[in-house]
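Bit of a strange request maybe. I'm writing a small parser for structure token strings and I need a real example to test against, not something I typed by hand. Could someone generate the tokens for this chain?
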Amino acid sequence: MTGSAIVIGASGGIGRALADALETEGKHARIIRLSRSGGPDGAIDIQDEASIAAAAEGLADTPPPSLIFVATGILHDGPAGPEKTMRELDAAWLSRNFAVNTIGPVLVAKHFLPLMPKSEPATFAALSARVGSISDNRLGGWYGYRASKAALNMMIRNLAIEHRRKNDRAIIVGLHPGTVDTPLSEPFQRNVPAKQLFDPERAALQLLDVLDGLKPSDSGHIFAWDGEEIAP
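Reply from user aminoacidic:
Good idea to test on real output. This should exercise your parser:
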């Protein structure tokens, strides 16, 4: 067994499935589940840096985690959702997208990466999205979600470059899970072919398979559920 695995956002569809899959695999000594709703391993609010710092501090005496997975994100919230045109742009909703999709994960990295091994293999992954690829954007729209995921991808690249100086065996990546049957994607599933709509359990296994196939030279890059690298 390797060190512990930490799943942040473990009460969500993908996060819960990831934590369950890691438990079943039995490769880690302990699976630590953190979410805003709390649980036996504690609570974390990725929109509150003090909460992130406290969660990390609470794990300071546990064995160094060999995997940290940030499985959080926002696409819609009540009437607020992806913008179809620039007429729908709203400062508060744009800020919320960046707070959850970009700032939260990078602040998790700020406080949790120091917990990871200094010389052993270790992986930090965060849920990204193919629509965060600037070169792949041919449809427009979804301003806040696209931009916040593109910004997350840049943060991942920065983190990978800096952390390589501390542990050149570490891997820091973003992962696109595809369209997963969760509340996040539910309003947008109508035109998704059945074979391309994954249940959370399958999505989790696919993402873990991708992680298993990565090398330190892949750090700083973004990968889809099938292992394909997504262009910036």
